[in-house]
Amino acid sequence: MKSKLYFGICLVFISMILFCQKNVSTQIVQAVSLFQSRIFPSLFPFLVISPFLIQYGFCYYIQKYLGPIFRILFRISENGSYLFLMSMLSGFPSSANYAKELESNHLLTKEEAFHTLLFSHFSNPIFILSMVSTKPYLVLTAHYLGNFLIGMVLRYRKDTPTTKIKRTLPKPEKFFSIFTSAITNAMHNSIFILGVVTFFFLLNGVFPIPIFKFVLELSQGLYYLEQLPLSPQLFVSLAAFLLSFGGFSVHLQTFGILSEWHLPYFPYFLTRLCHATLSFGIAWILF
Q1: Domain boundaries, position 47
Q2: What pLDDT, on the 0 to 100 scale, is given for residue 140?
Q3: Is the dihedral of CA 260, 264, 266, 269 positive or negative?
Q4: From CA 170, how far away is CA 61, in angstroms rounded?
Q5: Is 236:283 a contact under the CB 8 Å cutoff?
Q6: What's the rounded Cα separation, in Å, for the pair 172 and 242?
Q7: Does a structural domain hold residue 13?
Q8: Residues 283, 140: contact at Cβ < 8 Å?
Q9: Contact 209, 260 (CB under 8 A)
Q10: By the 8 A CB rule, do 222 and 242 touch?
Q11: Looking at the domain assignment, is residue 5 inside a domain?
């Protein structure tokens, strides 16, 4: 029954693409242009640098100097501090990529990585400052504070990791080996992100439902938000909401990276709704 349903959906989708060919082409060009001008430049450097930082012991220094602070605030292990800090700097969906790398290098269990990821859903600060035209620093502050509050609440989960992980400075692989692997993985993840962004732009072109413009793809949602006749306070609050929720495009990218863990996705989705609501309220109050 499911296979017939999916087959029918595919036929409808293909038929819509054929009937909306001009609009579809425009959406694809816009998606590639957006990826080239804003998404790829802000994400690719961090995707390449991350394996070097892990291999050359950045986790060790984060654990040593900042780990105790994050442990008190969020009740996460010291190695989880690296995931949280790097997520703040590079943004989603890189945070999911860092979680996967830490788990594959046995620096975090998949349960610990997933728990920390629940409140490490940060948008790239450069992306926020370039995409939000009105009070971008206020939006950035509300976005970050919302995640901090989520992290402090989640510290009381029964399954919160409490074991202190002691690590020694790792012996890195050869530089060329790290470089080759980093470039390969960064390009693989970048192409995946491009594909997801293009797909959601394509959906919006085939099914031009107004609400889809805001919840499917984050960049497009912020663009259309600027076109509405909103007060500055409401615009800033809604921008903080959209950035903290992330859009279904970001959710699919994160889900694709973490799918092999076989963990329930609903807790991540629920925390995004809570994060978005908190960010909206903080932005409204601070305006």
Answers
A1: 23-159+171-286
A2: 92
A3: negative
A4: 11
A5: yes
A6: 39
A7: no
A8: no
A9: no
A10: yes
A11: no
Is 7 contained in some domain?
A: no
Mean pLDDT of 244-265: 77
Token pair, residue 85, equals 């800090």
User: What is the rounded CA–CA span in Å between residue 273 and residue 237?
Assistant: 14
Can you give the pLDDT at residue 2?
Answer: 58
pLDDT in tens, 28-40: 888 888 788 877 8
Whole-angstrom distance, CA of residue 81 vs CA of residue 71: 8
Beta carbons within 8 Å of 247's beta carbon, 6+ residues apart: 200, 214, 215, 216, 217, 218, 221
Calculate helix-pair angle for 266-286, 247-258, nearest 10 degrees: 140
The pTM for the full model equals 0.75
8 Å CB contact between 210 and 235: no
The residue written with tokens 């060790």 in the block is 60
At residue 279, does pLDDT exceed 90? yes
**Per-chain mean pLDDT for the chain:** 78
Of 39, 50, 141, nearest to 87 (Cα)?
50
- The C-alpha atoms of residue 282 and residue 287 are separated, in whole angstroms, by 8
- Asked whether 84 and 98 are in contact (CB, 8 A), the reply is no
Q: Spell out where 19-90 has E strands.
A: none
Number of domains within the chain = 1
Is residue 176 domain-resident? Answer: yes
